[in-house]
## 1
Amino acid sequence: MANFHRAAAIVIGDEILSVKVRDTNGPFLIDRFRARGIHLDRILVVRDDVEEIAWAVGACRGRYAPIVTSGGIGPTHDDLTVEGVARGMGKAVVIHPELEARVRAHYGASMPPEALRLARVPEGATLLQTSETWFPVIRVEEIYLLPGIPKLFELHVAAIADRYQGAPFHLRCVYLSAGETAIASVLDRIARDHPAVALGSYPRMGDAPYRVKLTLEARAAEPVEKALADLLGRLDPGVVLEVE
Amino acid sequence: MANFHRAAAIVIGDEILSVKVRDTNGPFLIDRFRARGIHLDRILVVRDDVEEIAWAVGACRGRYAPIVTSGGIGPTHDDLTVEGVARGMGKAVVIHPELEARVRAHYGASMPPEALRLARVPEGATLLQTSETWFPVIRVEEIYLLPGIPKLFELHVAAIADRYQGAPFHLRCVYLSAGETAIASVLDRIARDHPAVALGSYPRMGDAPYRVKLTLEARAAEPVEKALADLLGRLDPGVVLEVE
């Protein structure tokens, strides 16, 4: 089990960037990874373009793990993820013999020649069979190439998350009737005195019954509870609507 | 009116990357920009972190315009967008005198000192008053700093889009009962013979009444119609379910 907890996602597809399709894979990944203690640090959404994919891979490789790509896996002209990932890593694109065998078995005698594009991988890639789908996840170093179709994407994510289990997150929330500016100096103090705790401040507009939601979060419960007690001791009790 | 059509968005916020809040600003931006002929090329979602924001700005500056940031504008410790954008551009953070005057007028005599953080801008920034909200958009070069709160974000986007009007997009769609592999060679040919047309191929799973949706798109109608006619001439008519 790799000792990494900070992940990145590269979402590939003109259809996402033109809102023909709304990306649900990014939020799904955040949610599932989070349940395993893996924090998604970056989501890069890029076009179906080899240079763009290569840029995104270069910007994340070696800094995040796992790196999950979504989309651009398939037999058509706009499926460029394998080529883009390979270029971003300075690797060649090669035919993976076992994957070729699977593709041939899947299509049988009626296989069109374009189907063999599905057997291309960045050099050095291995296959990860994560579910009942016939097509495996292509893995190269800490990068996992997943199809963009949400149903397939979701099938594969759990198995990847299993390999990178981290400590769970502890989260407390405080809802306030005061605005951000009024509490900014208290937040400064809490952020400075409790550096192990991620302190978030989110203003709400319109209909919400509170004005600001604060979040306190860390990988252990104790520092979160300490920061929460300190915070509540410094806030005017009249502005605290709810603690959860 | 600037002669740019390719935009980028930088979405800033730990709350997005932990799905405490689902990003709606990215999709909103795609949609509104698209209606004005501006294509969003990249969406980079990063943490509330000065280095991360600076990295994203450096990766987009000079290549895309407009560049819109979402989030991290406010008076609290986790509002780091001004500092991150400044660092990414190699600029200092300075107090903008007119913005300071607006902040003082807004808060009046009861202004806490932290409110003055709202008057900080990257050096060389100008203010863009785009709506009825008292707080303006901070603009520096082609980068526009917008608040993450969707209601405020949306109020500001239209005015930015007005400055970058491009030619509209023409889109045709073809729905097929065939799978991607079977039509890959036809798509190769269309993509090669009609390079001015963006040809997309999107497989559907499950309940959809088609197997593949094709999209043909360009900034002028004529090349799209030519590519569509060519495509329909090369596909088996039996697999074409609908053209729209």
## 2
Amino acid sequence: QINSERLWNTLHQTCEWGATHRYGENPTETGMARLTLNDDDARVRQWFAGEVQKLGCSLSIDQMGNMFAKQAGRLGSPAPMIAMGSHLDTQPRGGRYDGILGVMAALEVLRTMKENGFQTNFDVGVVNWTNEEGARFPKSMCSSGVWAGAIPIQKAWDLRDIHDSSVTLRSELERHGYLGDIACSSDPATGYPLGAHFELHIEQGPILPENNRSIGVVRGAQGYRWLTMTVHGKDAHTGTTPFSARQDPLLASSRMIAASHDIAKKHDALASTGIIKVPSNASTNTVSSQVTFTLDIRHPQDSVVYAVQDECLKAFEAIASQDGKGVSFDWTLDTDSPAVKFDDDCVASIQAAADKLVGREQSMLMTSGAGHDTVYTSQHCPSAMIFVPCRDGVSHHPTEYCSPQDCALGTQALLEAVVHYDQS
Amino acid sequence: QINSERLWNTLHQTCEWGATHRYGENPTETGMARLTLNDDDARVRQWFAGEVQKLGCSLSIDQMGNMFAKQAGRLGSPAPMIAMGSHLDTQPRGGRYDGILGVMAALEVLRTMKENGFQTNFDVGVVNWTNEEGARFPKSMCSSGVWAGAIPIQKAWDLRDIHDSSVTLRSELERHGYLGDIACSSDPATGYPLGAHFELHIEQGPILPENNRSIGVVRGAQGYRWLTMTVHGKDAHTGTTPFSARQDPLLASSRMIAASHDIAKKHDALASTGIIKVPSNASTNTVSSQVTFTLDIRHPQDSVVYAVQDECLKAFEAIASQDGKGVSFDWTLDTDSPAVKFDDDCVASIQAAADKLVGREQSMLMTSGAGHDTVYTSQHCPSAMIFVPCRDGVSHHPTEYCSPQDCALGTQALLEAVVHYDQS
Ligand SMILES: NC(=O)NCCC(=O)O
Ligand SMILES: NC(=O)NCCC(=O)O
């Protein structure tokens, strides 16, 4: 039985490193800005290293600063450890639970085992993955991506602080002493292989609360593709240029954004535009000659992601030739994250834990809408995730909130799932 | 008969003050950046003052730096002068003709009269209106607006350089010695009243070239209203938030922009969005909580401008409640410029000039799509405008171009119209 109070207190005490964006009176009513490898991130890392060592764990750090804490199992080490992993970095206007809960829960699981003299068969441990958010060094799930061989380490090392291009991820690893000597890889010869990877995370969406469920058994993650569209037209005076003489890229972009939504809806998929930009010299009485906007397409099946993309591009062609003499457009693919199916045994262990703790009516099988470190680990070891509800589905925001009860329930589920997996 | 070569050479020589944005080999193939009361504007003003004084004009400068050059008529001064006016300031990425042609043409008219020993009955003269563009100090047709009593002088004086808030329009008037002592007003007691105002200007649109006409007889200007819409929704993760749980202001804005176009089209009016903005912390995988966009609605009849606005706002309400739980919006009115009908006698004088020079088939009665200084002068003296074609309707752009033939023809028409008006 995990200690719910200790979990809650530990989580909020360590959030003193990086707390900001106060939104209420209560001491814990702040958000977080603990950006990867800033001084607060270094402080919480140092604290984390101390705590796992107190528990008797052996700590390894790889060349991306990923921290692996290992508790020995009963059988010696016949196989790589069963890991519970997540991340301690946050968004610049982030909250206290995204990532942080997963690491604190894993620590609480180890503390509970130690305190009860409980030993797993195989080694178990915790991973703190570096730069999951990609907020300071712009590549999300960065170091689990390097570990999985999906991102070249040089590319990751060379990432620059988005506000200070003189600082790289590698220079910050060096500054804080987190450029370890183990390869960032799942290769047993040079790197740090894992036997399994379990991640507890807040849902970051409204599905659990809307369905009144307290545990999400996450069996995979949806695929997504990020496109940046650039639409070209012609500068024109809004007062003197008849519609028939215009090539208006903002009007075309508006119709494209609306069309992408309608197409995605038809396919039960998602298509979203987060950013739209006109040139900085735009003015109220000038039709801009260029507009760029992002398009984020998602669905649990890659074939549907592609179908939505293709239908959107066809619709965009049609829109570009409407309204006057026609605009043109081109696009780049910024991120391509195929759909992932998690490991059946890991999912079964989580389902077993959920059944025991809350029953089938209170849990739900689901697909992660967002990317997580587990999406990368699942390429190299059996992996799955546990979701707990967060208030109103809000995350990446100071008011992000997960109740003490839900934090505790998720942590207990994590413990039970790991024990179940270890024993089967 | 005006001297076409002198006109062309004078125009391009004076464009050396502020020339930039080269786009071709030819010495005149550059744009202009002669922003109101910058050093280049001060140089061309000084040159202008010298030229009109050489012609024997009396020069007056009012408290907005408007420059009035007066050539005495045969009858003494029984009435205020018949003015030919426009502006010498440009957009930051402007061209060599917008405004500049009108002032250079007026000067050429005076030179032609002088050279031919021709004297009008009444006083005639030239006005260089300060800050027509509103590009540096953000208020367009600024000083004709003050002259007409539509803009309080203190408000105009307090306008700040959009790139350097320590500089005001008044401080720049003082720095260059253009804070005159005459009131900026049409009041005969304190200000500088005008007997009439004629303005030659490039069309800034494609109507003349598309209809193969060389002179536009401008009988009025359409009304316009500039709105800034702010659409409010809710931050949400694009991967984890189902459409049904979103309040997506960018999707709503897109539908609004498309709807405003369709509504305007139905009314044979114009509705245009030049600027759209999401918060600077927007990201590809976040639905923004707020979007702002501009809406510029125009039609020659104010009632239609209002009808389009009302229909847009109704459509926006409907759109705001679509797609999930609904967004909200509010708006501000930034500019309200009612439709203007120019003076019948002034228009008749221009029509007479056009008939004589090119005939009815080569000229066309039209309504100005854009605002001009003449829109303000028409509130206090008989006024009208002459349009000449500019290449592809392009203006506010370095490649803005009006052929030597069209510059000359417009200038000749200006001379004939003023003489016709003076005599009738
Ligand atoms: N959890 C999360 O926000 N991941 C970032 C990548 C994504 O947008 O899915
Ligand atoms: N001529 C011109 O661009 N005037 C500015 C105001 C308008 O957009 O009509």
## 3
Amino acid sequence: MPNPRPRGNSPKSRTRRPYGGLTLGLDLGATKVRAVLVDRTGRVIRSSGRLAHSNDGPANVIKAVVRAARRCLPEGGDALRGAGIAVAAQVDPATGRVRHAPNLRWKNVPLGRILTHELGVQVRVFNDARAATYAEWTLGAGVGCEDLFCLVVGTGVGGSAVVGGRLLEGGTHAAGEVGHLPIVSGGRRCHCPGRGCFEAYVGGWAIAERAREAVRADPRAGRALLLKARGMPGIRAETVFETADAGDPLARRLVTETERYLGDGAVGVVNAFNPSLLILAGGVITGRPELVRGVARAVKQRCQPPAAGVRVVRARFGELAPALGAAALASRPARSAWS
Amino acid sequence: MPNPRPRGNSPKSRTRRPYGGLTLGLDLGATKVRAVLVDRTGRVIRSSGRLAHSNDGPANVIKAVVRAARRCLPEGGDALRGAGIAVAAQVDPATGRVRHAPNLRWKNVPLGRILTHELGVQVRVFNDARAATYAEWTLGAGVGCEDLFCLVVGTGVGGSAVVGGRLLEGGTHAAGEVGHLPIVSGGRRCHCPGRGCFEAYVGGWAIAERAREAVRADPRAGRALLLKARGMPGIRAETVFETADAGDPLARRLVTETERYLGDGAVGVVNAFNPSLLILAGGVITGRPELVRGVARAVKQRCQPPAAGVRVVRARFGELAPALGAAALASRPARSAWS
């Protein structure tokens, strides 16, 4: 990596570093929006974030994105070199359109066009897991690795693979969507058209849903969860982990089951993509080293040898990864963004 | 593809077509060995095959391979341009070593070295699913496609992916081993260290095992299967399909369940690799167009849009694909064999 240097804004320096300079990275998840301003070394200069719930509808969520972005924009003199947004969705990077975002409940939203208009700078659109993978691969836990998989367990579950030194794209830009590996044949309903998906067991929304069902089935056993969450609607994935930490048996059972399902999905990912490095990222993983250790154990015990030799690590950037990756991808010329 | 032309064996023609000429392709599965002699257009000039059971141990199975290969070798004048063997195993293509073949019960067999010695020609070693995929991609159902997955359902279940015009390799040459995607969390034991694997439900051995268990649990309902198979040990995957074709309720239930599990695995493969084309190959699929239709339906209904737009077809070469692919891969220079 080149050393960080203050960027001059004379025409001459522009010619010498056409893809350097400051870049805006945005991240639109199911419950949060985030913006970061990064320099050409990937260092975060400024950041902002806010809650934005998918129930608010596309127009309001986009307003929240624009507000977060504006708070990060550089002052007058510092022209922006590029901007990108990572979305928990299947996107078309060529047109900047969000095709299908189950957890946002969006379909066919021309997000790139709207943001480009609002911010006055071209905003490119990327899948969030792919952006996070790119950040970890080029700046984070996966630097120098040719075969890695980055598994992102947040509200939803996504992922992306680097195989033979290339970020996989797929026929419709959706390779690595391992959140929708069926791990329980005929099992729980997912937000996608499938059943029994990995995400329907370990995604943040699914952990909360499983907990609410368990509490409904046995309200006595669920008392600690209900107290912590101040009522059924307040039960979220964090509530379950925190209540388990405090020793509550029902919450502990839910966490143990989550670990088992996380192992199932990770074993599938490692057997299918055969990475040398498995990077775990996303809100459910952040701050929970025991989940990383559990996945490492499952993979070692249950994967095919020699795929089982994979190294399992936590992401370097945690929840910042998608925004950083969107900035990094946006600072590259369009044609080489995926290689 | 160039037109088929009789190959001259003058030094001049050798110089002009350094990787053309006759190639030997071998296929070592869990229950059969096969040899084909192909010309530079992929046309089969000669073939031979025989049953060889994994219980016979590596030495006897290798003898059977050598016998099948010798029956296909060209006469004196026609020097062989290369030879390759496809094995239902995790292999190291650089050393020709079979690392782990659960269905053959082999570990660390230097197959390439042994066969090279026995046949007097360098024999390169490939994973069978990867070889089959290469055959379908370069000569068969996938010609011209940049993003495809070839799912091979035989005694075991394997697969391989072409993504962005490259056959995926993985950190230890095992990318695409989707037979070991867990599809039933905590489910049936597999021949690998895992549980609930795709292969443990739809591999030929697993269909037979599930049928034997069903017959044991209800011998009355299993009468037709027992009759057809002439006793419990004779029950194989074919027995189940044939007995179901004759209308037997137990066999039909087993086939319906197999179709559901096949759908689960195929949905996982399509969501994970996002191919434009899914090619179904292997002994369990061959001659069963209804299985191909069932997979196409499952994928369309249960995959994430737009990945669900994948086209599902049957392999062109059926059970010949691994041997053809091994020949095709062996006829290329080592460095470009995977691109």
